[in-house]
Amino acid sequence: MEAEKIKSEVDKIKSLFEQELQIAEDEETKIRQIRTKYLEELNKLFKLIRELKDPEEKREIGKILNRTKEYFEEITQSKLEKKEITKIEIPDISIESYFGFHGSLHPITIALRQITQIFEKMGFEVEEGPEIETDWYNFTALNIPPEHPARDMQDTFYLEDGRLLRTHTSPVQIRAMEKRKGKLPVKIIAPGRVFRRDWDATHSPVFHQVEGLYVDKVVRMSDLFGILEFFFKNFFDGKVKVRFRPSYFPFTEPSAEVDISCICDGKEPACKVCKGTGFVEVAGCGMVNPAVFKNVGYEDVRGFAFGMGVERLCMIKFGINDVRLFFGANFVAFKRRYF
Hints:
This protein is α+β, with helices and mostly antiparallel strands. The chain has 10 helices and 9 strands.
């Protein structure tokens, strides 16, 4: 495609973006969807730069696309921040009161918002699903066989009707592929609460996960590593080391564990978070197992998936050494200590 045609396409995309954003008004979900949609359109044009022969034209088109991308992000972020401003009724200050009004965001809420923003900039959409799931979505469709230990009553909360409290947000990946019925690409993250029968310094029976899925015709494991390293470097302001270790998961093959450097930096042998190793396991990832694609009726595609615990990321980001503090009764003392 020639440079002039790319410029014309940018103008067209910008015009459509502004029209849709105006129609969306203050609906937060629609604003996010519009941002993701048109950032994807710009990403397609970025790929066309390599076809231009003139270096000057390449630089010019690159600048135009970058400016347009920044414009899309700034205007949508401005709308979202405006949406968050709520009107409050100011109490009658002439009435004597013995109580003060204190409030702030929970650290997990802060982390989830930051995580979502980083992945949305990379073109991921946010998907949600039910917290009470069936065996099919939570285990079978993900290639987790009946004899897998995750199905044990000691690890999973089962209900009397045979359903269960989801043990991960991976079922959202299956639902997202089913909803799109083969339409590509599938590029989503699934944040939410999950439930497992654990309770110690680094485990809680209720916690939060963010899982991601990217499915298309050509997807490589190097893409997966690049996206995760970009995320962790941005989330921790470049202050952590990231490493990948070979691992095994029934729903991905090949698979890897993702570790990041601990708050103690390996200098405290008695550290509760990393057990003195200097690194904390925060995510699992890998290329989607073909059996999973078969279960949802996808053919001739490749993809990767990843999942991470939000509490562990918070512990490292905010220097918290016990996950139980997030949900304990003495949360006021916790906030005074860490915030």
